Amino acid sequence: MRADRLMAVLFLLQQREQVTAAEVARELEVSERTARRDLDALAMSGVPLYSTQGRGGGWRLLGGARTDLSGLTAGEARALFLVAGPASAATPAVKAALRKLVRALPEPFRVDAEAAASTMVTDPRRWGSSRIEPRRPPLLDELQDAVIRGVQVRLGYVDPHGAETQRTVHPLGIVAKGPSWYLVAHTDAGRRTFRIDRVTSVDPTDDPVHRPDDFDLATSWREIADEVDRRRTPLEAQALCTPDGIVMLRIGLGSRLEVGGPTADGRIEVVIRGRDEHTLAGELAGLVEWVEVAGPPGVRDHLTAIGNALVERYS
Length: 315
What we know:
Keywords: DNA-binding, Transcription, Transcription regulation. The chain has helices at 2-15, 21-28, 32-44, 74-81, 92-101, 107-116, 140-149, 217-232, 246-253, 277-285, 297-314; strands at residues 49-52, 58-61, 120-123, 151-158, 164-177, 180-187, 190-195, 199-208, 235-241, 257-262, 268-274, 291-295. It has 315 residues and is an alpha+beta fold. Strand 4 (151-158) and strand 5 form a beta hairpin. Helix 2 crosses helix 3 (32-44).
């Protein structure tokens, strides 16, 4: 959350002619000691910030409250504005402040800073039952820089079968999906995703990225993730669920559940996706109190076998 605080402090300085550590502490609900550390950190990072001592003293931005923040380098500006993007854990208020602050940046930085806020998406859901801990891929920064600058890259990549290839791609955005990172890019074969931990080399070119006018990273990733989920769980089962069981199904099945309309007996039609008939029957066996599977017949047969086995063992 420190990045949140630094951005909030920077915006306070942008709004006011001068602030004291006590005022910063009150605004951000932190100790004065923490506020002083944050002010010092901003000054050391290159923000044109200075302090005056004594009565009436405090912290000011060089050039007054409407400075263009020209003490920031292009890289620092991009880094700061990543906090405003969808991948950030920043609060909505801080993100709103950042979007206002971008208007104070000098023109050469503004485009890159605004682009940085839309280069990443975070999808906290993991694929399947993966428990792998997140690990930052070595070439993530190089790819993110290419996305922000809007340049094509020659990409070295190892596919799932171990074959290494070289290709030129148009980087469109980066997604953090659970423990994994993905590059969304346009290629000669259309839109593709690349797992960044399989990227072996990144060689930026001077050629600009061809970015569709209507491209939105978050929307594109939802389409990609939905398609992957459908491929991983191709089987669809039709069922009826009691109204009080819908919550249980949502908890257990997540996006694999589609809820339809009510039936004459008050139950609700649902469609449930699964990997195969046997696996899906095993998942649904524990929901028998709320769910009645209508089909396919193979799922019902597996449920019957599970029920008979339970009766034989526990009767």
